[in-house]
Amino acid sequence: MKKINVAIVGYGNLGKAMECALLNNGAFNLVKIFSRRKNLKSPFNTGFELLQNILDYKNKIDVLFLCCGSYDDVLSIAPNLLKDFNTVDSFDTHAKLFNYINIMQKIATQDNKVAICAGGWDPGLLSLMRLIFYSISPNSNMPISFWGKGVSQGHSNAIKNISGVKNALQYTIPNKALIKKCNKKIVKTPTEFEKHFRLCYVSTHKNANKKHIKTQIINMPNYFKGYKTKVKFVSNKTILKKQKKMFHKGLVIKNFSCANGFKARLNFSLDVKSNPGFTAEVLLSLGIACYKLSIKKDYGAYSVFDLPVKYLTTLPLSTLYKKFL
Amino acid sequence: MKKINVAIVGYGNLGKAMECALLNNGAFNLVKIFSRRKNLKSPFNTGFELLQNILDYKNKIDVLFLCCGSYDDVLSIAPNLLKDFNTVDSFDTHAKLFNYINIMQKIATQDNKVAICAGGWDPGLLSLMRLIFYSISPNSNMPISFWGKGVSQGHSNAIKNISGVKNALQYTIPNKALIKKCNKKIVKTPTEFEKHFRLCYVSTHKNANKKHIKTQIINMPNYFKGYKTKVKFVSNKTILKKQKKMFHKGLVIKNFSCANGFKARLNFSLDVKSNPGFTAEVLLSLGIACYKLSIKKDYGAYSVFDLPVKYLTTLPLSTLYKKFL
């Protein structure tokens, strides 16, 4: 296979990790990093280009990795870029996923492009596990997902929006006793409130009403209301230090009875010390799939559900059969 | 979706578990069980038919589940049946897999059929995990598989072939200390000999030379030589009792460094109390895939590597995106 010419859009945590992953893999040739910011520098001397000039590279890039800072960015940028480039993204707003993929599907088929959407570890790897686990004995118990301990950016941002709050970091913490129970026996699907606790580190502006802030956090609908939530007021320095550590965990369990009455348990877990570092590794494999599909002219928008696993690697099928089957 | 008309070939442990699984799932209509044996009876009153008459059912069956007793059977029967039926099998002789799938591929494309080959949990589910784990950071450590505690039919049969042996049962037992180590840190890929122990229960004929039998077992190349092997001579009654319990376990671990230097760990495990019961549940999901592919006229031979996961279920794609992604 020839080297896959790729580029990165966005140079935040994910973009930087993506650069490392691509430079570490001989299958790729990293052409450029595109950003709206000027004067960026890479420790690896990768060339930068302003995003507004990206069309100059239309025929020089096989796959574009969208590593934009905020997920609203993906939503506004991706459909436009897809008209001229094959794309891989990690869009993760669950409520908007279905519509997003439909929009991408329309453009991809119209413009003969491949878009791999919602890659990463959740959505992505954990979604794949949920669907595989569900499909094995579909009339029995549903697979159960747990997340954490790890930072939820959405919940952290929700706290930051409260008046008087300077900075915030929210850890999603799974209920360990419940995980043990789910692994040990067949249980009724637990509620979200039972599955996770929420631990919030908050720094405030001078003279802020901490008691009022705490009340607002604990009662915030959709984010905290109903959950066992702990709020810790700390210095901004403490938060900045914690923000540097981007570990996370994920878990999918299915404990069930087979049709013949015998029990079975499936368990998948991931434990990553760098959320962006691991996400980049997943996106890289999806980048290979994106390139292979574009070569085959199988244009369209794909989620991890729509891809044969053989596309995730540059290895030939005969090797896969011999080494992994 | 209309009900999928299916049939089972073979009525051993797997065939019986397959019957349970299919009758327990509303998506299927179990038309017949085919066997070379006469006068079979099912506790569920499923109808039997001699295998030699199977062509009478050519247009009445959407998918045929091959649950033949021995794996040599699959090799001789499957290519013939594929000429007239879509098939799902759990052929598992790793050394012959690649050739087998190539043979099936030729027939499937010639006769407009779909064959899903080598389904089950290994090859099958564990293969899928190995390839997914490999593809995420492919230049780092290889995924490591462990099996057991559970019976290896191949090893049990190898012992049975020794002169003087009446019956035998071989348990593959994973090295628990090594599993712990592989989960905890990044290790050099261990050898097969380090990964598993072999525990053999053997009953002998009268006057058999037990010492000689033990020596033959321990030194048998490919099967036992090099492994830490324990041989226990027991009564045939003990073995028959143990043979009724068909539990097994499987594990795939990948502990590695992402390109950005941070560690990550992936872990998949299954723990099943009935090997055939669980295998049947996996084959059922592959049966859905087989039917869907045949409807789409995507004829050919498939392994789990060649299938998008969305085909494993009867649920529509919109539901998959909303509930599992």
Describe the structure.
The structure is a homodimer of 325-residue chains. The mean pLDDT of chain A is 95. In chain A, the strands form 3 sheets. The first copy, chain A, has a 7-stranded parallel beta sheet, with helices on both faces. Chain A has a 4-stranded mixed beta sheet with strand order 8-9-10-11, sandwiched between helices. A 3-stranded antiparallel beta sheet of chain A has the order 7-12-13, sandwiched between helices. The first copy, chain A, is 35% helix and 25% strand. In chain A, helix 1 packs across helix 10 and helix 2 (71-82) packs parallel to helix 3 (97-110). Chain A is of the alpha/beta class and 325 residues long. At the A-B interface, helix 1, helix 3, helix 4, strand 13 and helix 10 of A face helix 1, helix 3, helix 4, strand 13 and helix 10 of B. Strand 13 of chain A pairs antiparallel with strand 13 (263-272) of chain B.
